[in-house]
Amino acid sequence: MKTCLVVDDSKVIRKVARHILEALHFNVEEAGDGREALDRCTTTDQALPDVILLDWNMPVMTGMEFLRSLGASGLANRPKVVFCTTENDVAHIRAAIDAGADEYMMKPFDRETLESKLQLVGVA
Fold first, then answer.
1. Distance of CA 58 to the CA centre of its chain
2. Distance between CA atoms of 9 and 51, rounded to whole angstroms?
3. 57, CA 20 to 30 Å: which among 7, 78, 88, 97?
């Protein structure tokens, strides 16, 4: 079974994502900010998630800071990253892809949208 780490400071968004992902047969883990997510990904005693749903605007460490730190960490099997945000202008999308995101999805999202993005990055 695939694992997804949902990184968002909104409990509501994490709950909605969890509900959809569990219906798609994912194990779901949650983090409330980028620092918590980075700690989760760089702890050696835990397997990496297959995919990360990543919010842009969060306290402590933003999605972009997390993405850059994840890239700099040198992980051998870096998880796929789907940015999931309200930021929808081309500059934000390009910056996310340039920083290492594999896909980009707008909030609010539904099961169909999330499932199609997971298929695009090869984890669904």
1. 13
2. 18
3. 78
Burial bucket for residue 59 (CB in 10 Å: 0-12, 13-18, 19+): exposed
Distance of CA 44 to the CA centre of its chain: 19
Between strands 80-85 and 3-7, the pairing is unpaired
Spatial CA neighbour of 10 closest among 43, 57, 61: 57
Give me the amino acid identity at 87. E
Dist CA 28 CA 41 (whole Å): 14
Taking the model in full, what pTM does it have?
A: 0.95
Q: Which residue has the tokens 């850059």?
A: 68
DSSP letters spanning 97-114: HHTT-SEEEESS--HHHH
